[in-house]
Design a protein that fits this description.
Number of helices: 7
CATH topology: Globin-like
Shape: globular
Radius of gyration: 14 Å
Oligomer: single chain
CATH architecture: Orthogonal Bundle
Strand content: under 5%
Order of helices and strands: HHHHHHH
Helix content: 55-70%
Largest sheet: none
Number of strands: 0
Structural class: mainly alpha
């Protein structure tokens, strides 16, 4: 089965699944020693924005653009030192969250690959 990027959002269950994914992800981020230093203590607003972004990123409504404009993700992340270690920690949290949210294959792998490319693009600081 081939995954068509525009259909991932609907095919995985839309906003309910994105919410499960983001909630599971930030539960891990808030406890990860490599990530705690670059995230706020209260992750509520960060998670809300991530839900908007991932909705759009995986083919749902353009909620992020409607509220915040063009994502410009690299520019928005430049104030935070994102090292290879932090990228790997972020991806480990996301991989576990994809599993916890019970996202089925082939969607899980397709989503993780897109997120891996994004995480690689966000790195801005060497170890």
């Amino acid at each position: 089965m081939t995954v068509q990027r525009a259909n991932i959002y609907d095919d995985i269950g839309g906003s309910e699944t994105i919410s499960k994914l983001v909630d599971a992800f930030y539960e891990r981020v808030g406890k990860h020693p490599d990530l705690i230093p670059i995230f706020p203590e209260d992750l509520t607003e960060t998670a809300r924005k991530q839900k908007l972004f991932l909705t759009q990123f995986f083919g749902g409504p353009n909620l992020y653009i409607q509220e915040r404009g063009h994502p410009m993700m690299r520019a928005r992340h430049m104030p935070f030192p994102i090292t290879p270690t932090r990228r790997d920690a972020w991806l480990a949290c996301m991989e576990a969250a994809l599993e916890e949210a019970e996202i089925e294959e082939p969607y899980r792998s397709a989503m993780f690959e897109r997120l891996r490319m994004t995480a690689n693009h966000m790195m801005n600081t060497p170890e």
